[in-house]
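queue> holo job accepted (guanosine-5'-monophosphate)
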Amino acid sequence: MESLKNKILNEGRVEGNDILKVDNFLNHRLDIDFLNEMGKEFKKRFEGKSINKILTIEASGIAIAAIAAQYFNVPVVFAKKTQSKNLDKEVYETEVYSFTKAKYYSVKVNKKYLNKEDNILVLDDFLANGRAAMGLKDIVEQAEANLVGVGIVIEKSFQEGCKLLEENNVNLESLVKIKSIKDGQIVFK
Ligand code: 5GP
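queue> job finished
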């Protein structure tokens, strides 16, 4: 997606050799017009697929998932990271290692929001080592639902997530793929 590459080059900020900050349009300030463009692109990438629910993870996946959902006309379910008093005891739960926070956390989805008739599209902002995506895949499997695919805004192809998803036969669609980040320079695949 050329417009996203340009947006990353113009507005993104590199931290070290593996972190890209896109707070100006995706992770802090939300550029709704641009999120709509990306939402339409996800719809195109998964055209013809039967999808009745989008699943993401709080907090950074929610914005793109909610905007994209308008083009799929489906609800969004987001996995919760926090221990919530309101969340029923009846949950699907999995452990995810956070690349950015360098710690494990548990994510949960209330059982009433996923079931075995569901055809699920997982959406997230970044793909790094694939732990978030694999955690959501695990939750889909616990619900005995069907994982149609995983849609990612920014894939960092130099980390192991894309390989891990491929090895697990996941239909992965990334709007842009970054081959490397070195000395502040972003190189797209
Ligand atoms: P993974 O689970 O694939 O290792 O990491 C994906 C998650 O970590 C994403 O949901 C995203 O929130 C966060 N993440 C990974 N890499 C980056 C990055 O370079 N920039 C930002 N802003 N978030 C990232």
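queue> The longest strand covers residues 146-156.
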